[in-house]
Write a structure and sequence with these properties.
Blueprint (H helix, E strand, L loop, with lengths): L1 H4 L6 E5 L2 H6 L1 H4 L5 E5 L5 H6 L5 E6 L2 H10 L4 E4 L5 H5 L7 E4 L10 H15 L3 E5 L1 H8 L7 H9 L6
Parallel strand pairs: 1-6, 2-3, 2-5, 3-4, 5-6
The chain binds S-adenosylmethionine.
């Protein structure tokens, strides 16, 4: 069946409400084998917290001013200018990113939900990281309202022929 064969994302999405939650995920989700991309790093405050947990982290931001300040504050880390919506440029960073952190201005409000989903899905499809951690209250709220339907009990009953079809 065509549906069975179609491409499915395997990336996990972790939605956090604020910067405290965003940073709390680091010891849970980042490990020593990871190469991490941070999108929207500003002055590198979270980048520097991620660094000790992984093999390599690259902090990126659309603002050259932020990147220059991040480089001055943390000269031992790598920072590059990147517009989050230019995924091709993220590929050109030349790493196989296993985790992606996203915290860009304007992605928290409820009306930004579709943008957050579109951006996260684009990174999941192109970079195929194991996990994308996003700071977005909108996504967290939406995720908390979602329950994937699993028809296990109904399927099991059908298999055993004990389904009540009345
Ligand atoms: C809230 S700050 C990030 C704070 C940082 N993650 C931290 O934990 O300290 C949001 C950042 O998103 C950046 N930003 C906004 N639009 C962006 C875009 N399209 N691509 C990349 N960065 C963007 C801003 O320049 C700003 O530095």
């Amino acid at each position: 069946m065509a549906n069975e064969k179609q491409f499915r994302l395997r990336t996990k999405f972790i939605a956090t409400r604020n910067v405290t939650e965003y940073r709390q995920t680091i010891p849970e989700w980042v490990n020593e084998d990871d190469t991490v991309l941070e999108i929207g790093c500003e002055w590198g405050t979270t980048t520097v917290l991620i660094a000790p947990h992984c093999r390599e982290v690259v902090g990126t931001d659309v603002s050259l001013e932020c990147i220059e300040r991040a480089r001055r504050k943390h000269p031992h880390l790598t920072f590059e200018v990147l517009d989050a919506f230019d995924v091709r440029a993220a590929l050109d960073l030349g790493r196989r990113f296993t985790k992606v952190y996203i915290d860009i201005s304007g992605l928290s409000g409820y009306r930004s939900l579709l943008d957050v989903i579109a951006l996260s899905t684009m990174y999941a499809t192109v970079l195929r990281p194991e996990a994308i951690i996003v700071k977005s209250g909108a996504l967290k709220h939406f995720a908390s309202c979602c329950t994937p339907w699993r028809a296990t009990r109904a399927r099991e009953a059908r298999r055993k022929g004990t389904a009540n079809d009345a």
